[in-house]
Model the fold of this input.
Amino acid sequence: MTAPYADVMVVSQDAAVVDEVQRCAAGAGRGVEVLGVVEASARWPSARVVLVGDDVLGAVLAAGPRRRPDVHLLCRGAPTTGHFRAGVSLGAESVTALDGAREWLTGLLQERAAGPPGRVVALLPGSGGAGATTAAAALAQVAARRGLRVVALDCDPWGPGLDRTVGVDERSGLGWREIAASPGRIAAASLAAAVPRHEGIGLVVGASDALAPAVVRDVVEAARLGHDLVVVDLPRGQVALAREVLARCDRALLVVRPSVAGLAAATRQVSELGGGLDVVVRRGGEGAAGVGDEAVRSATGARLVARLPFRRGLDESVDLGLGPVRSRRGGWARAVDRLLDDVLHGDLTGPEVAR
Done:
């Protein structure tokens, strides 16, 4: 029987490169397979992380390996323009000098070789008061009750606050201010350990102004490597931020109020973001009809995946610190539960998801 491939494949004949990678991999608890260019070509698609030494860079490029994620070029000295050009040709995610890279490399191996990443779902309000934050908090609550590792990212400095919505009055730990002020990228393990948690939900909150898309991008990538589910609450009107996050999402949900005004605003959102959104309808007060499902689908051109019904006492539940899913019973809880199934597995279709 063929032995399973190691987590990390090193393509290099430079003893210094190999020794440093093996040292970092041991610290990260990962196995290393050191291969020549010919052997590496056969196993190129299978390793979780591929590290290429610049001593064999020309031979690797000549072999014409297929582009894949998690390829990194390691240089004995400072990278030159030639290194960066070759890295582009190789499809490398980074070109890094070996000297002084131990902490970065150890963190990379911990993250990238840790197993399959979690799923990322982003929620956007189709209009003011659509209830995207409430829906995001509800998904996080239900996922945590299922025993999933969940983190919720509150990217809306003008919203009601994910922390308050799930029932947190005071928080301590890592937030957006600290992340934005820290140099470099945050590692997945560091993020998971440092964020405040409430009833199984990790929270990244505290944005006082519009967040830089690059900062949010890095946090999303780190979060998905340390959690089963990442819930991102996005603000209205931040198109660059939304596009950066949506490009890295498994699902993107536009929360729509089924009124003429709400639908008009939601349609503008879809136009600005270029599609790729599924629609979740949030019903208003009990007995409020609003526009029909067909009008929602026609106006947005998007798939309607869920209806979240009106729930009496929802605001009171949030005010009491119990979160939006106070009970596992009732139409609201069942709707959120089925929406989460759709987010996690993508095996449900049509508006019947949340009846």
About this structure: The chain is about 40% helix and 15% strand. The domain at 119-354 is CATH 3.40.50.300 (Rossmann fold). Residues 1-5, 347-355 have pLDDT under 50 and may be disordered.
